[in-house]
Amino acid sequence: MEPKIESKIKKLLIESQILSHQSALSGLSPGTRLYDAIDYHLSYPGSGARMSLSLAASLALDISPERAAHLAAAVESLHNASLIQDDLQDRDALRRGKPAVWKKFGPDLAINATDLLLSNAYALVASIGGVTSGQQLISTMHQAVVKTLQGQTKDLSHNQSESVTEGIAVAADKSGPLFSLSLQLPLILAGYENCVDLAGETGSLFGVGYQIFDDIQDLSKDRFAGNHFNLAQLVNEKGLSGIPGNRAEDLAHSYLAQALKSASKLPNGCANLLCENCVTLLAMLEKEAA
Amino acid sequence: MEPKIESKIKKLLIESQILSHQSALSGLSPGTRLYDAIDYHLSYPGSGARMSLSLAASLALDISPERAAHLAAAVESLHNASLIQDDLQDRDALRRGKPAVWKKFGPDLAINATDLLLSNAYALVASIGGVTSGQQLISTMHQAVVKTLQGQTKDLSHNQSESVTEGIAVAADKSGPLFSLSLQLPLILAGYENCVDLAGETGSLFGVGYQIFDDIQDLSKDRFAGNHFNLAQLVNEKGLSGIPGNRAEDLAHSYLAQALKSASKLPNGCANLLCENCVTLLAMLEKEAA
């Protein structure tokens, strides 16, 4: 990625982060528990991977910085909603090195904060004025939410005894939709409605590839806690017909290579950052294998 | 209300109910736990009080039946989301005579079902095509969600030792916004953006009046479970300066009479059904007092 574009994205990333944070708190009374719980979670942001993908796509598609920030902030709001809820449902005590919201404020506050961030994502997208594609932006966002919830629900009950195919399907539903949405929202806003399905497929492939990659890291670094489902471990245990070597690394490689191929077909190089991410992860896999 | 309009509303109520149910399930795979949990909850509908208010307002404002049904279904989707969540957070085992969702499917499914119904409300409103007010419909809906969540959060920690003023504020936040929204969405769609605040105030007054009325019924019928906050009991215990008699009945009367006055100022008689509800409740209060 060109240094000039990279620095543009970095600047917009901070703006989108602030927008996502401030919009979530607006309408709440400062000092109330709901305000504090949301403010707490958003005060320790992550890397903003999905926001960066969304911003890069928006810039490639000539969307104005302000609109780009609103789309990115909306995706980030959904992502944070899913993190707070995941931590509660998995009873993970830590998030980004700090107590998770449910641990610090209690389960009920985590539930209410999730609802608010979900709702905020719609408000952010709707606040982009003067667009004809508002209806499709919202319906595509809703489809991503439904798919994520379906994946989260399956995730609650899945375990190391299920088939690799089932494990992949859960990863696709749970991790894919927000990567997809990062590309789909800019594409819709720029008038490329015909690319929504391809962007959906791209995000899904990347989501699965990234999930297996991440689970491999957990295994190799002894971060595997035992109570968490690990797709890489499942693949290594059950094997996978049709993939040479039958190893989790090969499956991750296969999905990331497919994501790269699919992403490169999207218009105006709008998924170039996702391509770069694929290349980086593929290189890391090959380095580890060597 | 004219019999002709009443029968129109009844017919649209069934259509809106079906629309709210079907739209919530669309996108989910039948036979999955999330599908089943949502299908279960929506298979035992309530009286549809908020939907009826919304439909009556839409018809008075010359909104097409199809659009009216979408607005009503959206409000109902939010209402059902709040019920599933309330039951979980209050650990109420029964809803509409059946086990509550969290009791039958577990807390995690109740959380995911709530998210889906919340998201579905936005999809329903956005699916109304060809409108210029889409942005305001969504932002007004978001404000109602934020206020409800703030009320729900305060409700989690409030108790019989707080002041009457605080108790009323919680009731206004928790019960008011969805009554308000039932009127606000049709008003916005019909171009009466300038009436949104008055509709908000009307719903809030009615929400408080209705809440006290309901709590009075709970007290008189020994339905008061002890673990639930009861606003009527608080008023009776603490008294209320400035209201003759200092009784919960007087406070309910005062709020319902104010709601009636406020509702009658809305254009085209769009809140006539809410006025009728106020009159009915006021008559019941007077009958009980006699």
Commentary on this structure:
The structure is a homodimer of 290-residue chains. The first copy, chain A, folds into two domains: 1-130, Farnesyl Diphosphate Synthase; 134-290, Farnesyl Diphosphate Synthase (Orthogonal Bundle), CATH 1.10.600.10. In chain A, 73% of the residues lie in helices and 1% in strands. Chain A contains twelve helices and two strands; from the N terminus they run ααααββαααααααα. A two-stranded antiparallel ribbon of chain A has the order 1-2. In chain A, a hairpin with a 2-residue loop joins strand 1 and strand 2 (98-99). The longest helix of chain A is centred in the first third of the chain and has 26 residues, at 65-90. The mean pLDDT of chain A is 93. Chains A and B meet through helix 4, helix 6 and helix 7 of A and helix 4, helix 6 and helix 7 of B.
Output the keywords.
2 domains, Farnesyl Diphosphate Synthase, mainly alpha, 290 residues, 12 helices, homodimer
Question: Secondary structure elements and their pairing?
Answer:
2 copies of one chain form a homodimer.
Chain A: H1 3-25, H2 33-42, H3 49-60, H4 65-90, E1 94-95, E2 98-99, H5 101-105, H6 107-126, H7 134-157, H8 164-189, H9 196-220, H10 231-238, H11 248-263, H12 272-289
Antiparallel strand pairs in A: 1-2
Helix pairs in contact in A: 1-3, 1-4, 2-6, 3-4, 3-8, 4-6, 4-7, 4-8, 7-8, 8-9, 8-10, 9-11, 11-12
